[in-house]
Amino acid sequence: MVASLEQVFRDEWGRVLAALISRLGDFELAEEAAQEAFAAAAERWPAEGMPANPRAWLVTAARNRAIDRIRRDRTLRAKVRLLDVPEAGEERMPEMTIPDERLELVFTCCHPALALDAQVALTLRTLGGLGTREIARAFLVPEETMAKRLVRAKHKIRAAGIPFRVPPAHLLPDRLAAVLAVAYLIYNEGYGGRRELSAEAIRLGRALAELMPDEPEALGLLALMLMNDARRDARFAAGEVVLLRDQDRSLWDLEQLGEGRALLDRALALGGRGPYVVQAALASLHADDPPDWAQIAALYGELGRLTGSPVVELNRAVALAEAGEVEPALALVERLDLDRYHYLHATRGELLRRLDRTAEARAAYRRALQLVHSDAERRHLERRLAELRPR
Amino acid sequence: MSPGLQLQPAETATTVRVQDGRTLTTDGPFVAVKEALGGYLLFEADDLDAAIELAARIPAARLGGAVEVRPIAEW
User: Fold this and answer.
1) How much is the average pLDDT of B2-29?
2) Rounded to an integer, what distance in angstroms lies between the CA atom of residue A247 and that of residue A44?
3) What are phi and psi of A113, to 5 degrees?
4) Is residue A78 less than 8 Å (CB to CB) from chain B?
C-alpha cells in the first residue's frame, strides 16, 4: 500500500500541480496547496481506501485548501476569480475530468527568460515531482542553494508575467527546442553514472512524447535516450569505460532498444529530420552488428549541417575511418578548431597509428593526455600510448 | 503614468537581443546598463511573451545592444 501510494503520488503530482496552477494562476500557492492535499491523502487513503478518482480528489482537496488560504489572507484580493468557483466538499468530487495541462506547465518552466539551471530545477520539481533535496543532491549543490533557485524562479514567473500556456505557433519551434534541451541536459547529467537522473529524464521524455505524439523531435529525443540507456549496464566494467565495439551485447536491454527503434520509426514516418531524430537514428545504427559506418558518417554529416558543431564533425571523422577512409578522416580532423579537446588529439593519434605514422601518433596521444580530466579516460589513453612503444 | 513609477527588482528582469532576425532571451538585467543606458520606455503588455516581442522591435535590440524588460511595481 505504501509503495503504491508513493507511485500514485509520483504519477499524479505533475498533472495535479498543472491543473492547480492553471486555476490559481500562482505557482507558489498551487505548490503549497498541492503539498497539503498530498499530505492529507497520505493520511486518509490508507485508512479510508483510495478514492475512485484519486486525481480529482487531489485537485479538489488542493483547490479547497488554496481557497481557505486566500480567504485567510486578505491581501491576496487579486485572486477573486478563484472565489467565484462554488465551494465543494472533497467527498462530492465536482470535477471528474481534469484536463491534462502538463504541457502548459513544462513550457512555463522552460521559458527562456529563466536561467537554464532554474529551468532544469523547476521542471524536475513540478513535472517530475522531485523534492528540493533530491534535486540538490542530483546536481551536487547545497539544498539551500537549490531552494533559493526554485523560489527565485517561481517569483520571476509571477512578477515578470511568464504566461502559463503552450506557445503560439510562431514561438513554438524555439520554445520546443528549449523544452527538449532541458530534458536532454538532465539525461546527460545522468550519463556519467548518476542513474536516477537518466531515469528521471526518460520519465520526462515519456511525458513529452505522450503530450506531443505528433512532434517528431519529442519522439526522437525519447528514442535517443532509450537507446543510449539500453546500453547502460555494458558501458562500464570494473570502473573502466567500455567502448561500444567492445561492449558485451548480452548486457544490453534489448526490449528498451526495440522500444527506442519503434519510436524512431514513428518520428521518421512523421517526416522528422531534426537534430534529435538524426541522433536517434545514429544511436540505432551504432547498435547494429556490424554497424554501417558509411551510413553513420553520412548521418553525422547531416547532423553537422543542422548543428554546426565541430564535435559532430569529429565523430564523422571517426565513422569515416571505421568505414575504411582513414586518410580523409585525418584530413577532416586536422581542419577542426578543437585544440583544447582531448578527443580530437586521441582521435588524431588513433588515425596516425593506423597510417603507421607512429612518432606523430605518440605526440598526439601525449597532447590528449595533457588535456584529459577523467581518470578512466587517462588510463585508456596511457594504454594506447604504451601499445605504440614497441614499434 | 505617474511620476515616481517604480521598477521591480533586477531579479525579475529579462534581457532581449535580436541576432540575425532571431530573438534571444536571457534571465537577468543587462549588465552594461550602468555604462550605457540609452533610454526608458513604458509599455503595457499582457504577459512576458508580449513584452519580449515589443522589446525585440526596438532598434537597439538588433543593433548590437540589448533591451532589458522589467515589470513595474504594482501597489
Assistant:
1) 86
2) 50
3) -80, -5
4) no
| Regions of chain A short of the pLDDT cut 50 | 1, 86-91, 391
Say if A115 is an interface residue toward chain B (CB within 8 Å). Answer: yes
Cβ neighbours for A129, distance < 8 A, ≥ 6 positions apart: A9, A10, A13, A14
Checking if the pLDDT of B51 tops 80, the result is yes
Q: How far apart are CA A89 and CA A268, in angstroms?
A: 49
User: Among A164, A190, A212, which residue terminates a domain?
Assistant: A212
Q: Which of B14, B49, B70 sits opposite A171 (nearest CB)?
A: B49
Chain A nearest C-alpha distance from B44 (Å): 12
Q: Which of A54, A79, A99 is the last residue of a domain?
A: A99
Phi, psi (rounded to 5 degrees) for B68: -95, 130
Contacts of A1 (CB under 8 A, 6+ apart): A46
Residue range of the domain that includes A309: 293-332
C-alpha A290/C-alpha A102 separation (Å) is: 41
Q: For residues A160 and A148, what is the distance between their CA atoms, to the nearest angstrom?
A: 17
Q: What is the ipTM of this complex?
A: 0.85
Q: CB of A173 within 8 Å of any CB in chain B?
A: no
H-helix or E-strand containing B56? helix B48-56
Q: What is the model's pTM?
A: 0.83
Chain B residues with beta carbon closer than 8 angstroms to that of A75 = none
Distance between CA atoms of residues B12 and A152, nearest Å: 9
Shortest alpha-carbon distance between residue A159 and chain B (Å): 6
Q: How far is B59 from chain A (nearest CA, A)?
A: 20
